[in-house]
Amino acid sequence: MTAGRLVACLLAAASPLVAQGSFARLAGRVPAPALRAIDSILVAARREGLPTEPLIEKAFEGGAKGVAPDKIVLAVGTSADQLRSARALLREAGETQPTDPAEVTAVAAALSRGLSPELVGQLTAVLPGEPTGPALHAVADLVGHRFAEDSSVDLIVAAAQAGLRGLRFLDVAAAAVQDLQRGQSHAAALAHVHSLLPNVPPPPRPAPAAVSRARRLQPGSERP
Amino acid sequence: MIGAGVLSATDREPTDGEVVAQVLAGDAEAFGVVIRRYEAGLLRYATRMLGHPDAAADAVAEGLVRAYRHLATCRDPSRLKSWLYRIVGNRCRSHLARRSTSDLSLDDAPPIADPQDSEAATERAEQLAQVERALETLSPEKREAFLLKHVEGMSYEEMAQVTGERIPTLKMRVHRARAALLEALKEYE
Amino acid sequence: MTHIDPQLHRVLDGELPSDDLTPSQREQFAALQRAARLLADAPAASVAARVMTEVRRPRQSLGQRFAQWLTERHTVTIAVRPVWSLALAAALGAIAVIPARGPGPVLGEQEGIAQFVGRFPGAKSVEVVGSFTDWRPGAVVLRDDDHDGIWRASVVLPVGEHEYMFVVDGERWITDPLAGRYVDDGFGRQNALIFVRPLAR
Predict the structure, then answer these.
(1) Are B55 and B95 in contact (CB under 8 A)?
(2) Are C28 and B182 in contact (CB under 8 A)?
(3) B74 contacts A148? CB cut-off 8 A
(4) What is the value of ipTM here, to two decimals?
(5) Where are the domains of chain C?
(6) Nearest to B60 among C47, C54, C177 (CB)
(7) Could you read off the pLDDT of A61-101 as tens digits, one per residue?
(8) C106-147 pLDDT, tens per residue?
């Protein structure tokens, strides 16, 4: 089924509005012609055990950006497909019960940044039982700066084997990118950062003025 | 004149290694030789990568200033050329990564040919515009590979130094770029 | 897709002479050579003067450079930096800004600070809209108190990954040009992506 036909079917469908909570959140934020179609997608996602918050956020985003209703429906449907692919990858990597919505969402985000499913599978296999979001984003950062995919994965895997975890993977990627921006070749940058592991420099703390000036979000604008 | 003081006692052109040594010894003006030697090629490369002469000038200027400031990290001054192309290539990739949809594209750029030019010059300008449009349909990797090989005339070894990629990878990229460019040029026949 | 014979590739790579090419291979050879010759036309512009001006400029201290950045309208040296990679921008700020020991917000263990900075001279309003505001405008408004065109805000956010765009004058959605990390928004644009780290006290 083409994407256009899917959108048309969903827009025309009169699906029962089971998720009244979601509908209430969407109403007023998303163009009315898109509401029922998006709700259908949410119902299906919830039935499959997929996280629905990213899909609701995508609908809000489309509404805020003034996007046409059919394109919002298409984007929400695409996001749902990405979540399905992410969960399938996690299962293939050996995660028997990938119910952590954050993990499925993180893997979906990495896939949408262009990382190949094979690469995602390699990283999730190396970090069993651990959140893979930062590792995937670290690899995506490196690939975005023209480091080869396999070399990027090797570096992050080496970092994991050296004991680094979580956001520290982003420091590893940042160190390699900084070397590149100083004029080093990709190969030299990777070799240098390999040699630093696990003692890749952490980021500097924010300036005190930035901390004291920081404001919390306006009430009512935070996520529920 | 920029770089006039760099000529050696025999008045031959100094090598890149000699120029780098002179700059690192404190003779900032000697960097003018580097600019004079490589500016045209770098601007050509950046213009074809970015599709916009102003953005290309920014990328090359930023790249050359960065090269001056980090000249001490150029480990092999005899490979200065590929080191400069790598720096400017990185700047081009940064520009491409943050380019917004409102940026001027080649289609909107002012015509290259001056209306006062001859018919031959106008035809050449139109042919160039067709080739530029075809080049823009290539991915940045293939575009870069074609430019470095066929416009900048680099060997695969030099291209490996510039891009950090392995030679077999670069050969494959160049081969695909050739086919893709021919395919895109067919659209304009 | 156009097919190029391996023999022609070897000719183009300079490994074989072009004498034995077939007529169709010669056509392809000529088309590629013609394209390369056209692309080899060098642009007339020169950046020599611009570069040498920077080369000749005496290097200032970090503090002096930061002070100069604050006053020069044409200098864009700082942009959005996620809290984990403030790097030089944070170092400059730490040196040149008197540490404010004022109270500031009290952060939880899973909260950090994101600094948003963008250059929008002539703008009447700039805000950040993103996943952390439920894509609701009006929650994070940047300020340009000294009217130098550089808009700033520091915001307490939950630790983790967030997507956002700038909205200028209430209607222009702009991808942060210097975020360094992007993801397609599914609507034909790109959102910037930041990671907020815990700010342990």
Answers:
(1) yes
(2) yes
(3) no
(4) 0.82
(5) 6-39, 61-196
(6) C47
(7) 999 999 999 999 999 999 999 999 888 888 877 655 555 78
(8) 777 778 889 898 889 889 999 999 999 989 988 899 998 888
Look at phi and psi of residue C3 and say left if phi exceeds 0, alpha if psi is from -120 to 50, else beta.
beta
Q: Which of B48, B124, B185 sits opposite C39 (nearest CB)?
A: B48
DSSP character at residue B56: H
Domains of chain B by range and CATH?
3-7+13-99 (1.10.1740.10), 116-189 (1.10.10.10)
Question: Would you say domain C61-196 falls under CATH 2.60.40.10?
Answer: yes
Q: Which of A69, A100, A64, A73 is nearest to A221 (CA)?
A: A64
Report the 10 Å Cβ neighbour count for B23: 23
CA distance B144 to B89: 8
User: How many Cβ contacts (< 8 angstroms) between chains A and C?
Assistant: 149
Query: Cα distance from B161 to chain C (closest Cα, Å)?
Result: 18
| pLDDT for C93 beyond 80 | no
The pTM assigned to this predicted structure is 0.52
If you average pLDDT over residues B74-85, what whole number do you get?
87
Render the burial of B86-109: b for 16+ CB within 10 Å, e for the rest.
bbbbbbbbbbbbbbeeeeeeeeee
DSSP H or E stretch at residue A83 = helix A69-92
Is residue C44 pLDDT above 90, yes or no? Answer: no
User: Letter for the amino acid at A59?
Assistant: A
Element (H, E) at C162: strand C160-168
User: What phi and psi values does residue A71 have, to the nearest 5 degrees?
Assistant: -75, -30
Closest CA to C180 of C195, C168, C167: C195
Q: Check CB contact under 8 Å for C104 and A64.
A: no
CA of A113 vs chain B CAs: smallest distance (Å)? 13
Comparing alpha-carbon positions, the chain B residue that sits nearest to A180 is B90
- Residue B41 CA to residue B57 CA, distance in Å, equals 12
Task: Give pairs for A132-136: CB < 8 Å, separation 24+.
Answer: A132/A103, A132/A106, A132/A107, A133/A102, A133/A103, A133/A106, A133/A107, A133/A109, A133/C161, A134/A166, A134/A167, A134/A168, A134/A169, A134/A170, A134/C195, A135/A160, A135/A169, A136/A106, A136/A107, A136/A109, A136/A110
Amino acid occupying residue C137:
P
